[in-house]
Amino acid sequence: MARRIMNMLLGVMEWGKILLPAGSLRFYPPQFILRNPVLEGVTAAFQSGLEAAVIVFHLQNMNELSVLKGKSQQGYFMKQLKKYFRHAVQEELKEEEIIALHDFYGDVVTLIMKVDVDKNTLSDMDHVINGLLYYVEGSLQKHYPSQQIHFETGYMFIDKKHYSISDSIQKAHRQAIAMAEKRLAVKYDDIDYMINQIITNKNIRLLAQPIIDVATNEIRAWELLTRGPKGTAVENPLPLFSVARQTGTLYALEMLVLEKAFEQIKKAKCRQDIFINCTPLTLGNIRFTRDIKNLLQRFTGISPKQITIEITENDSIEGLKNFIYNIKMLRLMGFRIAIDDTGAGYSNLSTISEIMPDIIKIDRSLIQNIDKNSLKESMLKGILLVAREAGSLVVAEGIENEDEASVLTRNKVDLAQGYFYAPPTVLNMEMAT
């Protein structure tokens, strides 16, 4: 009992200095905090069906900065650092997305934010992190032009299934710090061991969501969606793939997904088209086409013409020297190529012109409430024109009601998927024929 009370007190002390999103962000000294606003914010996020992520920014070379020789200089530097992070968060995020901004230890700043795992992607997380760093590092560089200022980052999702949300917050924070520091410490080893065990034991599941012909309302294809071990913090794909990316196991995880997909197609004796997701990082791996050929040899009877490789995320393909070559090789083997997330806040039209995909998937952010937003419908028409010019079919994602579906019909969109038509489920023989 005494130990539990001590842990609770340490938790309050640990999260004592907090920047809250009420009005303008500012510090609240510990003596004025009568309740734990972080705990309340995370709990509220969970209750509204969202996830919460802890993002850590670790000032990697703080001990090397010549401007921090005296205590007064250190104090001024930290004051500037907090100010720039506060401004960056206000610029990059909506107020409703922010749970807290926290000054931890001095060389670590922590952002806790709400995340919608149904709508956000790994690239969305990267864009948030990179946007904040661009602002903060740029501002510090202007103030200290002779200093090389460098942050390392890491992030972790808070486990909503844990018996104690307070404990989950602190655990996620420690893990995010370990990710940021890239250290071979116990916490990092635990995370690394967890993801490697998932891959080694092939402990993932694939669900299938139908892709519907808008004109006939018939099922034309299935998209296979990944889920981590049931009942764990990485059951949802965003936490699962975020851990894999930060631990250097993303390629191994995505190859496991492809293996499981081939296995499931063969078991269900599926003859319909199948969409399988891959990130540009995996598609740009020098081993990718060789490993795909090995899978085809293992699972005889599966035709590449049946499979569409869906390029997920909006990672830049620049610098991925094998990416375009691998895409060409996949096409020669008979695979079709789709580009995901078109219209999602930042342009991937240059990628479309370079790849000339067989299928363009329109992001759900453009589709949501499209029946009430004429600008969104105009954007849809623009993407349809691009698709026709490229000779691509169009799939609209995230259809949730009949009104949204009716906009697709009148604009002659080819295909659609979403909960309005059917939720993801297990692919079986009856469904796949």
Automatic annotation (TrEMBL):
InterPro entries: Cyclic-di-GMP_PDE-like, EAL_dom, EAL_sf. One of its GO terms (molecular function) is cyclic-guanylate-specific phosphodiesterase activity. Residues 188-433 form the EAL domain. Signal peptide: none annotated. It holds the Pfam family EAL. This is EAL domain-containing protein.
